[in-house]
Amino acid sequence: GGKDEEQQQGKSSDKNVINIGVTYAPSNINPLQPVGLVSTYVSNLLFLPLVDLDSELTYQPMLADSIETKDNKTFTINLNKEAKWTNGKDITADDVVFTMELMANPTVASNYAYMFAIVDGLDDAGFLPKGKESIKGVKKVDDKTVEVTTKNPTTLTIFEDTVGRYLLTLPKSELEKIDVAEINKSDFMKNPTVTSGPFKLSKIDTDHYVEMVPNKEYFKGASKLEQLNFKVLQGNQIAAQLKSGEIDMNIPSAGMIPVSDFDTVKGLDTLTTNYGQPLATQFMYINEEVVSDVKTRQAISYAMNRQQIVDNLLKGAGEVTDGFFTSMSPYLDKTIKPVAYDAAKAQALVDDSKWDKSKKLKLAVLSGDATLEKAANIIAENLRAAGIETQIQMTDLSTLLDDIVKKDYDLAVLTVSITPVNPLPDIAYFIGEGNPNGYNNKRVNEILAALSTEVDEAKIEKLYSELQQITQQEVPMPSIYATKALGAVNKRVQRATPSDFGMFINVNEWTVK
Amino acid sequence: MESLLSVKHVTTAFDTEHGKVISTSDVSFDVKHGETLAIVGESGSGKSVTALSIMRLLGKNGHVEEGEILLNGIDLAQVSDHEMQKLRGNDVSMIFQEPMTALNPVLTIGYQLVEAIRLHIPLEKKAAKKLAIEMLDKVGIPQAERVIKQFPFALSGGMRQRVMIAMALVCKPKLLIADEPTTALDVTVQAQIIRLLHSLCQEYGTAVMLITHDLGVVAEMADRVVVMYAGQVVETTDVYTLFEQPLHPYTVGLLNSIPSMDFDNKELQAIPGSIPANYNQLPGCRFANRCPLATEHCKTNKPELTDTGSGHLTRCFEWRQLQQGGNA
Amino acid sequence: MSLFKRYFNKKKYDAEHTVTWSEDMPSKGLFLKRFKRHKLAVIGFFYLAIILLCAIFAPLLAPYNPNEITDAFGEGPSMAHWLGTDDIGRDILSRVLYAARVSLSVGVGAVAIAAAIGAVLGLIAGYFGGIIDGIIMRITDVFMSFPYIMFILVVASIVGPGLTNIIIILGVLGWPGIARLVRGNVLAIKQSDYVKAGIALGYSTPRILFKHILPNTIAPILIYATSGVAGAILDEAALSFLGLGVQPPDASWGNMLSSAQSITILTDQPWLWIPPGIFILLTVLSINYIGDALRDALDPRNVK
Amino acid sequence: MDTPLLTVKNVKTYYPVKTGFMNLQTSYVRAVDDVSFEIYEGETLGLVGESGCGKSTLGRTIIGLEPLTDGEILFDGKPMNFRTDRVSLSKQIQIVFQDPYSSLNPRLTIGDLLAEPLTVHNIVPRNEIQQEVTRLLQLVGLSETAKARYPHEFSGGQRQRIGIARALALRPRLIICDEPVSALDVSIQAQIMNLFKQLQRELGLTYLFIAHGLGAVKYISDRIAVMYAGKIVEMGTAEQIFKNPQHEYTKKLLGAYPIPDPTKRSILTQQ
Amino acid sequence: MFGYILRRLLIAIPVLFGVTVINFIIMRMAPGNPIDMLVSPKLPDAAREAKAIELGLNDPVYLQYWNWLKNLVMHGDLGYSMYTSEPVVSMILERMGPTLILMGTALVLGLLIAIPLGILSATKQYSKLDYIFVTGSFLGISIPNFFLGLILVYVFAVQLSWLPSGGMKEVGGDGGFGTLLVHMILPIIVLVANVAGRNIRYVRSSMLEILGQDYLRTARAKGLKELFVVNRHALRNALIPIVTIIGLEIPILFGGAVVIEQIFSWPGIGQLTLSSIMNRDYSTLMGLNLVAAFVVIAANILTDIVYAFVDPRIRKSYVGGAK
Ligand SMILES: Nc1ncnc2c1ncn2[C@@H]1O[C@H](COP(=O)(O)OP(=O)(O)OP(=O)(O)O)[C@@H](O)[C@H]1O
Ligand SMILES: Nc1ncnc2c1ncn2[C@@H]1O[C@H](COP(=O)(O)OP(=O)(O)OP(=O)(O)O)[C@@H](O)[C@H]1O
Ligand SMILES: [Mg+2]
Ligand SMILES: [Mg+2]
Predict the structure, then answer these.
(1) Distance of CA E29 to the CA centre of its chain
(2) Helices A397-405, E269-279: inter-axial angle, 10-degree rounding
(3) d(CA D228, CA C75)
């Protein structure tokens, strides 16, 4: 019959349903430890964070109406007065405190616990010390207010970017029944029955799809959709399915359209497209034990024809970078231009550095991203021209991370997305003490230490600027380019804009024509 | 008496990777109603090919090139496939040398027998089965009811050959072609099978064309004998004459090759050499290379099958020498 | 009858005769003749010979260095680049020629390793039987029980992907089939009288194994190997599809083809996938035809 | 006639067959069951019996191709041990098989085939091997031109000759002939049997001649043993066996033999 | 027969044990570990340690295997996925269905095509038809799966929009037989091209062998029509070796599942295998491997049993116990 036919087309076009294409599998929906991008999006739809970052990189209230601080040490979280669980009960400060304690419990071993390490009473990994039941720095003020104290002075932005964004409040009444050791394996974490977000889980197959239905009781207004679905695809299928209508939209960097399909997608008149911001950045780890001479590292930076990659390979959908910040970061010092391609200078630097030209470096490259692989080919050719021989080795993420952690690599190229508003933890990991590049610079360590307690934005900017100067000179871990992911949405979908940040803040308002 | 089967100047050829190969040429002989005709000859001399030509079972690459095969006046070389299928098993049937492989290993004895019956006799399954059991009884298979449900592997070679005989004779054909039916069997079993064939054919009035290279079996069963060598009939006569007064040197050699049952302890008189592989291209007599009587003439001229009188045919220029020698 | 006996007595036994008459048996060239009957196999043979030459002389034939990045990015066929260039400006023709080396060596190398391991283990298992056979066959069970691709994936991640490793992995994983085949053959050949005769003649076991049994299983191994070569080329292609094949910048037909996984390339840049696609197809097709012809030409039942 | 060349004493060869639930029980096929006889130098012992009665198994046991289950086999009065003395024993005792098509390795030329035992056992100096091969070929009535050819280029009779030449290469004293003529044409059978006889005369060989054709055995043997169901039921000179058979089975065997004379139709008249 | 099956199953136990041990060793030799895939590398060691304890990865390796084995033998439990925390058994069971549906259909359809075509090809050896079928079968095995898949998706899903390009059901839809069927078409075409391609050759050569057998001559000598000779007498015998091929085909299909499921986003075992490898999900991999080995062994045993049923000669030797 007619219904069958519709289904045969595999299109949702006539139904009140939105399908979103993603290229990563939602491994789980456990809000205590979502793994990967899509898991995070889904668990955020089920359990609201306190605040969320929008596409303009400002924080919008979600479960909290506001977060305030006067001294940059004590933060007051005011919960939304209307906020309710799907079972009708109020979401209270007790739930927030309970969730904080769960996150801090080493038995739960949350992979986001470290985000809470700033809170007073938790150790560096964000765990409660042995024997402690409650967190010193967390206090319930009243039913809708919680007060959190940090160990060190902290900017509001950083507080919001950690506790604000990563605390997905869970219903105490449901979870306190469950043994903490079993909580990750519990049924609730697979099929949460009491949630707070705009959508409820209807069905999930962690490798293939997530089906969600609106939470009719959502306190910010229920969605009028029938369903909101995430569909896991291969990158090369996104364009095809956007075209066929099997999916309505993508999440730019979690549903990556291959660059080769950009023109096709942009050419489809059923779609509205927009470029995301340059977020995903390709970094080159350099093992300083292998490439110890700073001149050689500089040569590497000069040798790479970043502009050619951006122009020809990315077809302009990206930008040239050489440090930790892209143009979307508030801390980018625009006066420091990325190093320009200069083959002659690279060669000269190599000669000057007495680099052993017979040596062949292993260039480990994250596999699975065709564009990165091609870029790596260009880079390898660039380096060869400069006198540095490399052998590309496509490596899967797990192996690559292992090699990096064990410093068992020469050069490694890998994609990293640094949170634009709070780049410190990443930078500290990359070039701070004990970093996997083996880089050591006293001044850098001082800057990082200063940044960790600094709350004056102007000073922070200055410190970051100095850091940029140093890293451009010393090239401890250059970046190469940042991509602008392409977002596409079917014209039948109203009020939804693909974006890496804040795309779902207004999800309850999305409708279809 | 009118001949039941009359094979006239039959030449059979195969298409092979070496091109067309003439396998038998100018084969002629008759089988009369109810008689047993034996065909003997060296391996590869064309005995089986002759039999298969009659049955039209030469396979895809073989065909009768020339000549007529008249069965009751119908030329088997000309009838349609459909016609031939009706004749097979009904008017003329055949049993083969290897009882081990001639029965389909995955079908029961009963199935194979009933199939043979119902192809030619309009019988219900039950009745056909009954007939099958009767027939098995007749060929001396004990516990026929049980055997009918068994698969061929469960039977010994002798038993299988009995099944083959039962299958071949169940429709009372006028002619039975038996291609070395006992070669693979023990002598004791062979004796049983010979007896069985003989008595059944007597009973049904079936003529037998018996292919063998055991002259003992020939002496035992045959009324008349056709001797083949290198794709040709070289001698035809009744069985007594053949053993007493052979008129082809090959036949003589063959007879001399059998160890006698007397205790004279004489050397065997073997025919030297073997059948030439390229016998078709030989300009002269095909036996010339092994023949003690061969002259230059023999090597360059082809002998014809000639009647030496009273229907004793031989394909030899020098047959008179043998006749004289024998008489001397 | 005594007279006839005299005739034969007089003739001295002539040994020469026996041989002379069978001399005309056309046995030499029979193999070729049979093989030639398969016209497509002959065509396949010539095609393969040409591809092989191309692979060997790739450095002479290729107009560009296969990894050289020219200024033409993703451009279609032109006078400068007969088969166009890929996304990062490398000459497709040159890459396809060099890829022939990789793909053919994967095919041949993997099969050679598999055949060597499989033949030796199969020989041993089949000849000695008993517990040794049991153990070897259980090991093949174990190897066959690994889902092929999964094993490759894991091993590749241990030793790292790369041409040599691909060859080794595919070879090491490909042997159980050959081992079983050889074992089956050995079981049959072991019963044959010429092996028994060898034992009775006091030949050593290795001599019997390698001089008498092994050569007689070559035909099936060869036939199996041809399909194995084709299979290995396809497996490498599948591994490239999963990102575990030959490492860039080296080209293989498989990774050239698998980089065409986008509808844009499929429609707008056919020069990126048609050449490797056609080469894979024709090569595998040729090898299969040759295998089939070999099967026919080497069939022992044909050789009497 | 002092010590027999070969003494077979109470020889048993059983094949184990696994049966029963889970194949845990083992029963035995008693292929050769308590057989004893002697063969003297220069003599031919014929062995007849119906198919499957154990003739080949007995022959193969004697030459060590099947393990001896029980009993003793003495060669020249000394017990044979094939495990340890295979090499020296192979120079004493050899075998010729029934099937001329499967008894020659199809991948070796006749020259290689015959040279191999010579080189392996150092029968003649290296430079004389080719001569020796020629000599062997001539011995069995083949010409030197056979050397370069492969077995499939020969007819059955010729192959059987090559098989005999190979058995002779090591200059053995005893040859076990396992139905060497059964697969051949009548006219070729006679050639081969004559060859056997001639070789025995010239080389003083001893044969254990297995056959199921009574004619052949009678023609070639000095003494005949009749085997039935793994046991030797009767043994005697050819004349004794044929003229005065004692055992039921021997009588049956003789009665079933078709005599090539149409005037004496014994089988059909017997009934 | 029963005893025989039991014996085969008992022999399978050490094989399965060997498979799991080797798999366990190889898995642990692979670089990387599940923790890296779960938590950010910038995490302090304490956090990693907590994760290791949670996953049971801090025990000595042999103990980890022992625990796994104990759990399996005592409770028939395969543990929890290290990546998704779901029970491995339920993950595998959930994906087994789709894989079996796809593979089973492909196998059946492939054989339904291969058997008649192979027979026709054999009976008409060296005819035009024969050449066409043989070439077709070579094409079937010569086209890489992923490439054929890509082209089919392009033509039927993208250009013509007749068929969905992947998945087993429409997301959000509740499945249903019609939907399943529609989604199966493309992957099935790819698989069938392969299965049929491989098997046309097998059937053809096995049929050719049978066509030369004596008993067919017997059947013809009875006066049986050629059609019946081929279909009743030859086919039955030709099917016997084909049974073996089915046994070989199952592991091939199972192994090939990775690629085909990847291309068509089919929610089966293959995709799970791939993602488990990428995520170093040790517990799931162990489970998958055990299942795969079991499938292979079961296919072998099943083949032998079916073999015995179609071939009375072998049936007897099992029943009699002698083998
Ligand atoms: N299908 C065939 N294709 C080609 N040649 C064939 C075929 N069948 C038989 N021949 C040839 O025809 C000749 C006669 O063969 P045939 O089988 O009739 O011999 P035969 O007298 O029955 O021998 P045997 O006693 O060995 O059964 C032989 O040279 C044989 O090679
Ligand atoms: N390897 C074996 N395993 C089990 N049984 C065997 C084996 N070899 C032979 N037999 C059995 O031993 C018995 C004797 O076999 P053998 O081959 O010695 O008989 P034969 O007298 O030579 O028969 P033929 O005349 O058919 O050659 C037969 O019942 C046979 O089935
Ligand atoms: Mg014949
Ligand atoms: Mg025997």
Answers:
(1) 26
(2) 10
(3) 87
Q: How many domains does chain E have?
A: 2
| CATH at B46 | 3.40.50.300
What pairs with residue D44 in β-bridges?
A: D207
Residue of D90, D103, D152 with shortest CB distance to C27: D152
**What's the rounded Cα separation, in Å, for the pair B302 and B295?**
12
- Domain span at residue B144 reads 97-172
Return the ligand number nearest the Cα of D188: 1
- Residue E82, judged by CB atoms within 10 A of its CB (0-12, 13-18, 19+), counts as buried
Distance CA C22, CA C45 (A): 33
pLDDT of res. E7: 80
Is residue E18 located within the same domain as residue E71? yes
User: What kind and span of H or E run contains A209?
Assistant: strand A209-214
> Coil, helix or strand for B209?
strand
Q: What is the pLDDT of residues E189-234, one digit of tens each?
A: 999 998 898 888 888 888 888 888 889 989 999 888 888 888 888 8
B17, B76, B85, B164: which to substitute to probe chain E, counting the most E Cβ within 10 Å? B85
Instruction: Please check the confidence at residue E249 and state whether its pLDDT lies above 90.
Output: no
Report the C-alpha gap between E12 and E2 in whole angstroms: 15
Residue with tokens 């059948």: B275
- Section E141-153 average pLDDT: 84
Can you list the alpha helix ranges (DSSP code H) found in A232-272?
Answer: 235-244, 262-267
E250 and E146, same domain (yes or no):
yes
Same domain, B121 and B87: no
For residue E206, which amino acid is it?
A: S
Which ipTM score applies to this complex? 0.81
Q: Which residue of C has its CA nearest to B287?
A: C21
Q: Is the pLDDT of residue C282 over 50?
A: yes
Label the pairing between strands A318-320 and A479-490: antiparallel
Contact D143, C16 (CB under 8 A): yes
Domain count of the fold of chain B: 2
Report residue C177's pLDDT band, with 50, 70 and 90 as the boundaries. confident
Strands D206-210 and D174-178, by their bridges, are parallel
Q: Which residue's CA lies nearest to atom 5 of ligand 1? A: B14
- D165 half-sphere exposure, CB direction, 13 A CA radius: 30
Are chains B and A touching, using the cut-off of 8 Å on CB pairs and a minimum of 3 such pairs?
Answer: no
**Which of A181, A149, A382, A185 is closest to A284 using CA atoms?**
A382
∠ at Cα E125 (E123, E126), nearest 5°?
Answer: 155
CA distance A483 to A415: 10
Q: What is the pLDDT of residue C10?
A: 34
Tell me which residue range forms the domain holding D34: 6-102+150-270
- Record the tokens describing residue A230, joined without a space: 């995430």
Mutate to test the pocket of ligand 1, among B15, B16, B23, B228 (most ligand atoms within 8 A of CB): B23
Closest among A41, A314, A348, A364 to A204, alpha carbons compared:
A41
pLDDT recorded at residue C142: 81
DSSP letter at C257 equals H
Cβ separation A393–C262 shorter than 8 A:
no
Q: Are residues E182 and E103 both part of a single domain?
A: yes
| B320 and B256, same domain (yes or no) | yes
**Cα–Cα separations (whole angstroms), residue A364 to A379, C99, E37:** 12, 22, 18
Does residue E287 sit within a domain? Answer: yes
pTM: 0.83
Question: Residue E221: which domain range?
Answer: 93-319
Q: Which ligand is nearest to the CA of B23?
A: 1
pLDDT in tens, D38-48: 999 999 999 99
C-alpha E35/C-alpha A405 separation (Å) is 12
pLDDT band, very low/low/confident/very high, at E149 (cuts 50, 70, 90): confident
Q: Which has more confidence, C282 or C5?
A: C282
Q: What CATH number corresponds to the domain at position E178?
A: 1.10.3720.10
